[in-house]
Design goal:
alpha+beta, N-terminal domain of TfIIb, four-stranded antiparallel β-sheet, 1 helix, 4 strands, nucleic acid binding, metal-binding, Rpa12/Rpb9/Rpc10/TFS, DNA-directed RNA polymerase activity, DNA-directed RNA polymerase I subunit RPA12
Length: about 70
Amino acid sequence: MLSCAWHDIRRELGMEIIEEHTVMEYSKVNKKCEKCGHGEAIYYTRQMRSADKGKTTFYTCTGYGHPSQEN
């Protein structure tokens, strides 16, 4: 069975298949929206650049849904 050949190769090399699942966990923070002035937002962070750089934080205003981000 040719379609399973890569499974056999990975097994022989002792490699595991790691599936990536994206789970966004949102947290609330007191942050003033630059567009409407609302004082609360939800946010999540993500590594967008190389590992030696900081994470990017993405905010969404809970009042009107305005997006913003900080590097």
